[in-house]
Amino acid sequence: MRAKKRITLALVLLVLLILLVFPGWNPFLDEGSKLAVTTQIQKAFGGLFGGMGVLTPARLISAAAVAVFVTLVSLLICWPLELVARKGKHRKSMAGLFISLTKFICAIVGIVWALGILGVNLAGVFASLGVASLIIGFGAQSLIEDAVTGIFIIFEGQYNVGDIIVLDDFRGTVKNIGIRTTSIVDAGGNLKIVNNSDIRNLQQRSRQASVAVCDVGISYSSDLVKVEKILAESLPEIYERHRDLFLSVPHYVGVEELAASSVVIRVVVDVTEEDYFAARRALNREMKLLLDRKGIEIPFSQVVVHQAKD
After folding, report:
1. What is the C-alpha to C-alpha distance for residues 254 and 260, in angstroms, rounded to an integer?
2. pTM confidence score
3. Is the four-CA dihedral 290, 292, 297, 301 of positive or negative sign?
4. Which of 58, 213, 240, 307 is the most exposed place for a label (fewest CB within 10 A)?
5. What is the 3-state secondary structure (H, E, C) of the chain?
6. Which residue pairs from 7-12 have beta carbons closer than 8 angstroms and sit at least 24 positions apart in sequence?
7. Mean of pLDDT over the chain
8. Contact at 8 Å (CB) between 222 and 179?
């Protein structure tokens, strides 16, 4: 569906560009206007900057043609990049960076080109900026830093689109890596946009399997050896019920703690980071149901009160 929309948009832009660049085919213009537009179009597409002169309909039509042309070029460049992005996380990240860069460059070229056609003396404007250009240059340092950092992020493969990362206290999935920013969405759908140069000390959680942990307390009066035997027999069955979430059979790792009111045992299972929370909830549920079926008490926290005798 998205490809059809892009094809439709490309065709519309192409038809519009033809009508603007070839005014002889435009039925809405008289012969004088067609001649003026043809002259201006030749000047516009013959060089980046147009000559000086008053603002005329021919110049406006030429500027519109440039806008349509640059938009069409951007669309045609970005389209194959988006197709490449479907073939893997790293390619998607690379494509996203180049798409962002392409749109940025096309926008700058289009603006400069159109202003030149409209008669703006850009060389004089740039020369007259003086101190203002110096200030802008210093202000652009953060932009340059973001862009350079984004390039290193992509080529070093620190993370890719679709990876789960933890940045400060925010855990989410990378949705886009642009030339300036990275977009991260957490499990609740909250979007965080971070400048690339501000991304430091992140945790990459998608490179290897994660471990879901279930700590459950059993009564001190329970037979621990019996409980361990039950776990050895039941954990493979639990795995079979949750093969969509668990990467391996859950395994009992031992007594985690001798707490005040219970003996805390630990069961862990390998999972993907994407399924971490769902797998942990499933493991907790299965352990509760298993211990209930086997009559093994999960005690409440207890407070023992001793009353002194006179």
Report:
1. 18
2. 0.49
3. positive
4. 307
5. CHHHHHHHHHHHHHHHHHHHHCHHHCCCCCHHHHHHHHHHHHHHCCCCCCCCCCCCHHHHHHHHHHHHHHHHHHHHHHHHHHHHHHHCHHHHHHHHHHHHHHHHHHHHHHHHHHHHHCCCCHHHHHHHCCHHHHHHHHHCHHHHHHHHHHHHHHHHCCCCCCCEEEECCEEEEEEEECCCEEEEECCCCCEEEEEHHHCCCCEECCCCCEEEEEEEEECCCCCHHHHHHHHHHHHHHHHHHCCCCCCCCCEEEEEEEECCCCEEEEEEEEECHHHHHHHHHHHHHHHHHHHHHCCCCCCCCCCCCCCCCC
6. 9/75, 10/72, 10/75, 10/76, 10/79
7. 77
8. no
Can you read off the two tokens belonging to residue 209?
């399997």
Tokens of 48: 């980046």
For 74, the token pair is: 């951007």
List the structure tokens of 14: 């192409």
